Amino acid sequence: MPDDASFATPVAVSAALADMNDEQRKAWRTAAAPGRASVAARNLDIAFPYGWYPALLSDELKVGAVKPLRYFATDLVVWRGEDGAVRMLDAYCRHLGAHMGHGGRVAGNELECPFHAWRYDGAGVVHDIAYAEAIPARLRTPCERQWPVTEANRMIWFWYHPLGAAPEWDVEHFAEAVDPDWGDYQIFEWTVYGSLQNMAENAVDVAHFKFVHGTATFPTSDMIWDGPRRTSIIDAGLDTPMGRVEARITASQFGPGQSATRFTGVADTLLLAAVTPVEKDEVRVRFCFTQPKTQSTDTGALFAAGFVREVCRQLDQDKVIWDHQRYLTKPIICDGDGPILRFRQWYGQFYAEGTKAAA
Ligand code: FES
Ligand SMILES: [Fe+2]
Question: Is the domain covering 54-160 a CATH 2.102.10.10 domain?
Answer without folding.
Answer: yes
